[in-house]
Amino acid sequence: MAERPSAALPPTGVSGLLEATDTAVINLDRRHAEIVEHGEKLAINIHSKFDELHQALYAREGELMAKLEGHTKQQVKSLSAQRKEVEILQTQRSFDPNTLEPRETTNTCFVPSAQLVKDCKKFGIVYYADIPRKAITEQKVTAYYRFICPLNSAPPEAKLISKITNKATKCVVKEREKGEYEIEISYQPTVGGGSELIVRVGGEEVVGSPFPVALIDKLGTVINDLNKPYGVALNQAGEIIVAEGDAGIVSIFSPTGDKLRTLDTRGTAMKNPQGVAVDGDDNILVVEGGNHRLLKFSREGDLIAAIGSHGDGPGQFNDPMGVCVNSVNGKVYVVDYGAHCVHIFNSDLTFSSKLGSEGNGNGQFNSPWDVAFDHSGCVYVADCYHHRVKVFTPDGGYLRQFGKSGSGNGELNSPISICVDSNDLVYVGENGSHRVSVFTCEGVFLKSFGSEGSRPGQFSSPYGIVVDQCGMVYVSDVWNNRVQKFIFVN
Question: Which homologous superfamily is 126-215 in?
Fold first, then answer.
């Protein structure tokens, strides 16, 4: 393993606060414009739906009026014919009295649809949903919905359904004021780990549904007694995959931290495993610093493939550190610390291309350590000794960079781990400051957490980071021999 970068003391100042507040003002103005634009779109949609109703009602009115007009004309014609017959009878001495009674009556009726009138009064609902995008809780998830309903009508049925148990929860309806209701939906998780909640109102899923949630016991250490945990990853079942460098194994744990199994390393003589990643089929990829290799295992832990050796040629490595699988193009990216580059492999692990070289230019690195990608497939590289993050297209074209040497807000002190979550927030583990800093994908600093130490929430080299769908952040804490978990809410 390469030598650990040294730590530096964080400076003080107000530049970070000013930058953060300036960003907040920009975000508030942007959200103001978004809300106004969204309201205008909804107004157009409401008008459109009522126009459809009006057109349907006008069409039905025309049909009924035409039927009534035709029926009335037929009755009038029948009565006119009967009148002529009666006038002829006036010249005759005998007649049938029954022929004198009008053959047509006024028993034609119009029966309006009471249900239609009732439905029209209840047509359309405007609701305001207030549920956190990352609804993470120790006890329960509560969602509030405000409904503007027609007067004297009950609100529509609302349900909250767990995708794990497929059970709907009970709803409590409170009338805030005349015609306006608030529906409180509470979900009590019964199983640990991540889940998703489906929210339906009036039979339709609300915007944003399904919502990710998680049941957690507590924040802090989730796995103890590891032997130098380096890379960390999650599979589709929420199991935690940890590369234990000094033990030469990759261990797999349940979401609550119980050890389940280790990868079958028979015949591989695994030495100093570093980064780990999971592909779309739940296969596990491991970069092995000691043998300069890339290994691929099945979810169950059986070895599928092993490539690489020490060297500078295609498919060779010089102290590989980090690995990720780009879900957009399916390619595998391996950070080569010693060769100052990123190797790109096809999904079958054949060599594709190389990204970067040693140097100070835009497409160059000084001991890169880890790699990640965002929803569009753009590649983020933790450029350790340049104290920055560099961003590239999936094919390796330079886009931008952020960070500079330091321990202040927005500065980076020897970044050695990186992860991009489902909201394109970038988490960077800093070996020099023993913390995790969080940025937008454009490089705007949001916050940081952690400090040097061994207490809960502190780190001694945050070497690996992974974020699940619920916003739970897992950080491998190398020299404290543990994995910790955190919640970051933007």
Answer: Immunoglobulins (2.60.40.10)
